[in-house]
Design brief:
CATH topology of the largest domain in chain A: TIM Barrel
Helix content of chain A: 25-40%
Distance between the termini of chain A: 26 Å
Largest interface: A-B, 55 and 55 residues
Shape of chain A: elongated
CATH class of the largest domain in chain A: Alpha Beta
CATH superfamily of the largest domain in chain A: Alanine racemase
Number of helices of chain A: 12
Structural class of chain A: alpha/beta
Radius of gyration of chain A: 22 Å
Number of domains of chain A: 2
Oligomer: homodimer
Strand content of chain A: 15-25%
Number of strands of chain A: 20
Largest sheet of chain A: 9 strands, mixed
Chain lengths: 371, 371
């Protein structure tokens, strides 16, 4: 495919950057002697997950039962479904557990009980605990409630209670790397205390699974009882992560390549074919307060990737299929109809989700799961 | 499918409401003696577009060349692609023009010239004009520039210049129905003046195509030279439209049905399986300033649809696959794990885009275009 003459928006991947990002994260896990179980919801692609095998990755995290079925079907044998079990999907989960090693999470006695009654094949069960994000999970300091769910899980002798699992999504609101580390440290303290309480209640040797991309990118190490981390976004990174300090803009490994369809130099704007259904409407705020739906780069002339973000250029508005690019006058005059612009995403997971396939620069298309 | 026991989030449609919404819009067009050419990007479904045939609809508007190919392949014979032509897609457009009546829009001499050189089959060409939205289109008051593009189009004697086309997307920022009508009236005055200027320059009898959903829902009528309107969202409507006053909440004909996977009465929240990849992250602000990603209804007990929005309940946060619902304590205590909640969308077009198929309540699944 000629990226300089685009028929439609294309999700492009710089594989060398993915490899560098993945290698760094794998090295961080290796130094702490823990497992990297990447969250593959970011790309939903067995091919891209496969790129991480060279770094020893053998297990993945997914965000739905359907995605688990796709990865098990694609040859992955150890899959964790990181959304609390939907009681109406237990028959599907049970079927998957007959085909591979399946991990699920529960955060209520009600759901744990339903699993015991409905799942015949062995499952690895994690109790989800909330250390401050307040989405799902039992509050980390409610030790009695956590032990109570553990007791229900133990009644099902087919299944194995693996430990506690937490997602510290509150790191995404952190204003600095220091603040991310503080949140992660407080979380690990609270979670370790809950693991201790379980040990005292007759559940010794349980593991701890943690893993948002900001804290996994910035923590010094992963102390026991952590046995695995589940970051996802780090393979691509994005403007949200660079804003937090989890990566540099040069680490962002995925983008949307869009053709320019209109030029309006009188108002310093270009319009690309590429809108909310290609880029997603997640925004970050620029220093001046403007909503930014993506930063803008040029293709490198040798076709091997893209250059740094153009100073002052950003996606200022998104319709369903079109995006308005604010362009500083000097740059705007050198780009026009038919040219390709590269849009760095605000939230790579949601952007990737909008595409049926990805184009790896210099290699070709890779396939992915679609719900 | 049993909507009371959901395995995964489902985009649901109340067909009776679609029919009522479509009938009203068709009647508005009929009274003014103009064509309703609905913008089918809202649902991207030939089946749903087919529901409008009973109201005399014979032509559609689409937002991409690929979507045009899908609708032409599904038996629609008159399709307008309402995004300025991407010069690299002219071969595809030319092929479509050999199979049906294809309308395209241009807003620059550069693109008009490329069309003349690259398209062998007859096209219907509209010049896009901007009456205040400032996305694409030549400014409506730049009559000379508009005439200049018309002259280029006329050089291609295979093609037919149909007229001027405008999308007044600025109505979406209007604070009241009165303001929507003011914007629409000013736009029509400016566009009529441009049509007059074209007539004086030797291009008599040109048409005017307008049509955002707010103004099409609220204008008194559609005076000449308007010959067609292109609203899209009106088939479903959504919380953005009800906020503007283009519809009532009872008119919203599509929603996402989600199973509850976690209950947190201690903080008046439920969590559904249903996130940004099912609902989309478009938000409206509530009176108290909170971001609202959807309002929340219950399924009707007779299974024919859903009730009115629950007072005080709304989607307050969306992760990739999960949504947090703020629930007033009294309602929250009567809903729990395994129950179904109905989420009214903020922007139905973007929500529909995320689903591979739709479930029409009481009938079954309908298929759609997927890029």
């Amino acid at each position: 495919m000629d990226l300089t003459k685009l028929k439609r928006p294309v999700f492009v991947i710089d594989r060398a950057k993915v490899r560098r990002n993945a290698g760094r994260m794998a090295e961080r896990a290796r130094r702490s002697g823990i497992i990297l179980r990447p969250h593959v919801k970011t790309h939903q692609s067995a091919a891209i997950a496969g790129w991480l095998r060279e770094f020893g990755v053998r297990a993945v995290t997914v965000s739905s039962v359907d995605m688990a079925a796709y990865f098990l079907g694609a040859g992955w044998t150890d899959v964790l479904i990181s959304v609390p079990v939907n009681v109406h999907q237990i028959p599907e989960i049970d079927e998957l557990a007959s085909a591979g090693t399946v991990h699920v999470i529960v955060e209520s006695g009600r759901t744990a009980q339903a699993l015991l009654e409905g799942a015949a094949h062995p499952l690895n069960i994690w109790i989800e605990v909330d250390a401050g994000y307040h989405r799902t999970g039992l509050p980390a300091d409610r030790h009695e409630a956590i032990v109570e769910v553990a007791r229900i899980v133990r009644r099902g002798d087919r299944h194995q209670l693996r430990g506690l699992l937490c997602h510290d999504g509150q790191t995404y609101a952190a204003s600095s790397p220091g603040r991310v580390r503080e949140i992660a440290a407080a979380s690990i303290t609270a979670l370790s205390s809950a693991v201790d309480a379980l040990a005292k209640a007759g559940f010794p040797g349980l593991s701890l699974s943690v893993g948002d991309t900001p804290s996994c990118s910035m923590m010094e190490g992963f102390p026991p009882p952590i046995t695995e981390i589940r970051p996802g976004n780090f393979v691509f990174y994005d403007l949200t992560q660079s804003g937090i300090g989890a990566c540099g803009e040069a680490d962002i490994a995925a983008a949307v390549a869009c053709p320019v369809i209109a030029a309006h130099p009188e108002r310093d704007e270009l319009v690309v074919y590429g809108g909310g259904v290609h880029i997603s409407k997640e925004a970050v705020r620029l220093a001046g307060g403007e909503a930014c739906y993506g930063k803008v780069c040029r293709l490198r002339s040798d076709g091997t990737g893209w250059g740094p973000p153009l100073a002052g250029a950003f996606v200022s508005s998104l319709s369903q299929e079109q995006g308005i690019i604010r362009m500083p006058p000097l740059i705007g005059r050198t780009a026009g109809i038919g040219d390709t612009l590269i849009i760095l995403p605000v939230h790579a997971c949601l952007t990737a989700n909008l595409h049926a396939a990805y184009y790896v620069i210099g290699e070709g298309w890779v396939d992915k799961f679609r719900s």
